[in-house]
Every structure is written in C-alpha cells, then in structure tokens.
C-alpha cells in the first residue's frame, strides 16, 4: 500500500534585511543559543547577528566551524554546546555548516535555526544532512525526525557572496525535478520514506520552471550584488522549492554521481557542490535516455551561468577509465540514490555516461 509523506520547516522567512529580525524569531524557540559559523561568515555578519540577538535579549555562545560535516566535527560541537548549557542551535553559513548544525541539534534534541548566507545549496530546509569523512569523502545521509524550526534567508546577505556560488545553487536546484521524475517513474521512495506527493512534484516542477525562467537574469543581478524580484524568486527556488522538492519527491542520479566524484582525488574537489551536481544532472539525463534537445537545453543554460559541462571544466580531462568507474561504483552504493534512477546500472555504465556528456557538450556550438 502506498504511503504519502510531506515534510517541511516550521517557518521560512526570506527577504532583504531580515537578518535584523533574527533575534525576534529565535526568541520563539529559546533564550540561550549555540551559534556555529566559519571565520569568514562570522566576520561578515557576526556584528549584525549579535545586535539582533541582543535586541531580543538572547544570550549566546559562538563556536567556529572547522569546515567538514563529519562525525568528529559534529561530536566536537555537540560536546561544547552541552558544556555551554544552551537551549537551541543556530547555524550561519553554507551547506556543510548547516548540515553539521542540524546534526548537532539532533544530538542535543534541541530546536535548530538555519541562516544561509549564500543561496548555493538546497540543504537549509531539509530534515537530513550529508555526512563526509574528515577528508571530505562522502560517507552517508543522516536523517532526522523533524525539519529545521526556522530557516531565515537575508537576500541582501546572499547577493554579497561570489556569483559563482549563486550559480551553483541554481545548478543544484535544477537537479530537483529531473530526480523527482526518476523517483516517480521507478516507484521509489522519497527522502522522507514515502511516495512523492502531488504537492512535492508540483513544487519540484515549479523549481525547475523558476530557475530556467529567471536564473540568468538573477545571475547577472547577483554579479552586480543587487537584489531584484528575479533574485528573490531564484533564491526561493534554490532554497525552499528545491529543499522541499528533493526531500519530498526524492533524489536519484544527479546527487549520487556528485557523491561518486568523492572517490577520486584532484582539483575537482575545489569545485562547489552545485558545480559537481550540474555535471551529475547531465549524466543522469544521459543514463535515462533524455532527448538530445532536452540535454542541449540544460547544457546551454549551464554554460550561460558558467557551470561545468565538460570533463575539462571538472578538471577530469586526463582522468583514467578506472577512476571514472570508481566514481560510478561509489555512486551506485546501496546507501545512495542512483538505484532510484535505474537499479540495474553498473559503475561502467556511469563512466560511459560521464564521457558521453563531455562528447555531447563539445559537439554543441
């Protein structure tokens, strides 16, 4: 019998300047907060965060994020939060910071507040984290019983980040509907353990439509560090729509292949999550035999926002066949989602598709 599950954050707030309201929203959840951010993020917004929390009479303890969402980092921060006696956890920054903070809050069984400072991934809204080893190799997904209690996105802050990261968020978001369709077609389960709901599929489709309609103009606006209606729409699509879409409709090939890339060493690991997902999405489309026209549309759009569409873009143009098979084999792990695309794929199938994307991209003018 089918079971339909839909999961979402308690509250989502987005807009230019909403950082000044952070304290008021945090006060709904507790009075003593454990804050986590890396040095760069804290240097950029720390004063504004302290001012907002102070105005709401919120006390806090700040700790630096060390850079990897690993089990060791989660345990380190959870131990520090226990010693500090805080009541809730607040994460400020990018995807790995936010995934770590969700895990810390789960360890403590406390509310969690997510404050993305860049619209680069769909991590903020979900009830899961991607866990890596200390060396940055994909380890597992960690699932939670609830989504974040608050996601607060200040678009005025997000547009200050490098435009490359904004484009990465668009690329990550564009995987949402492609993967949702694969999950639906294969009768697989979503990330919340149910069949994709009508709402989830509609949200995933709206995500793709919004990004393809407004993504390029929003990209140009963010390059100038300005907030426009197109930017607001794209930030919502990258953060809320993609987050709800991937969680409630499911993941398939694009993100599994992204995870597979962690099997090899080299300059590819200087690329962002979204940059690797972009190539993973094209590979996913080749593996499900999408039409040339559909794949070409995505390739041209990715090019317009400077996302990778060739092996040279990934710094893999000289990679051996054996290493590409390793990528495919890791992507096909039992704990990952490639089987939602096709349960019969092999590491060699994925390696061939990775090479096919490169050849097809080079053929387009």
Automatic annotation (TrEMBL):
Gene3D superfamilies: 3.40.50.1970, Dehydroquinate synthase-like - alpha domain. Binds 1 zinc ion per subunit. Keywords: Metal-binding, NAD, Oxidoreductase, Zinc. Transmembrane segments: none annotated. The keyword Lipid biosynthesis does not apply. One of its GO terms (cellular component) is cytosol. It holds the Pfam family Fe-ADH. It comes from the Bacteria. Glycerol binds at residues 122, 172, 255, 273. Residues 9-155 form the Alcohol dehydrogenase iron-type/glycerol dehydrogenase GldA domain. Its EC number is 1.1.1.6. NAD(+) binds at residues 38, 95-99, 117-120, 126, 128, 132. GO terms for molecular function: glycerol dehydrogenase (NAD+) activity; metal ion binding. It catalyses: glycerol + NAD(+) = dihydroxyacetone + NADH + H(+). Pathway: Polyol metabolism; glycerol fermentation; glycerone phosphate from glycerol (oxidative route): step 1/2. InterPro entries: ADH_Fe/GldA (IPR001670), Glycerol_DH (IPR016205). Its cofactor is Zn(2+). SUPFAM superfamilies: Dehydroquinate synthase-like. This is Glycerol dehydrogenase. The lineage of its organism: Bacteria, Pseudomonadati, Pseudomonadota, Gammaproteobacteria, Enterobacterales.
């Amino acid at each position: 019998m089918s079971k339909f599950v839909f999961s979402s954050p308690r509250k989502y707030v987005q807009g230019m300047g909403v950082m000044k309201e952070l304290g008021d929203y945090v006060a709904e959840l507790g009075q003593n907060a454990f804050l986590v951010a890396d040095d760069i993020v804290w240097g950029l917004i720390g004063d504004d965060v302290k001012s907002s929390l102070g105005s709401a009479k919120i006390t806090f303890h700040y700790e630096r994020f060390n850079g990897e969402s690993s089990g060791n980092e989660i345990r380190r921060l959870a131990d520090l939060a226990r010693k500090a006696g805080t009541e809730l956890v607040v994460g400020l920054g990018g995807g790995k910071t936010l995934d770590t903070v969700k895990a810390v809050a789960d360890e403590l069984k406390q509310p969690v507040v997510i404050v993305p400072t860049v619209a680069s991934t769909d991590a903020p809204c979900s009830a899961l984290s991607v866990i890596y080893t200390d060396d940055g190799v994909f380890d597992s997904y960690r699932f939670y019983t609830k989504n974040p209690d608050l996601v607060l996105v200040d678009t005025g802050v997000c547009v200050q980040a490098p435009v490359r990261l904004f484009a990465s968020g668009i690329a990550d978001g564009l995987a949402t509907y492609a993967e949702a369709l694969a999950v639906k077609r294969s009768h697989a389960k979503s990330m919340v353990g149910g069949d994709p709901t009508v709402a989830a599929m509609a949200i995933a489709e709206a995500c793709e439509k919004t990004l393809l309609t407004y993504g390029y103009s929003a990209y140009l606006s963010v390059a100038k560090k300005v907030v426009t209606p197109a930017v607001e729409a794209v930030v919502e699509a990258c953060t809320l729509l993609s987050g709800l879409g991937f969680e409630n409709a499911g993941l398939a090939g694009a993100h599994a292949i992204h995870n597979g890339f962690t099997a090899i060493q080299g300059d590819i690991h200087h690329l962002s999550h979204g940059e690797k997902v972009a190539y993973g999405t094209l590979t996913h489309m080749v593996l499900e035999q999408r039409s040339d026209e559909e794949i070409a549309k995505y390739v041209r759009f990715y090019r317009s926002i400077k996302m990778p569409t060739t092996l040279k873009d990934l710094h893999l143009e000289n990679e051996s066949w054996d290493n590409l098979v390793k990528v495919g084999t890791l992507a096909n792990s039992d704990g990952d989602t490639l089987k939602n695309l096709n349960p019969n794929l092999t590491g060699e199938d994925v390696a061939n598709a990775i090479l096919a994307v490169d050849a097809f991209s080079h053929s387009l003018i």
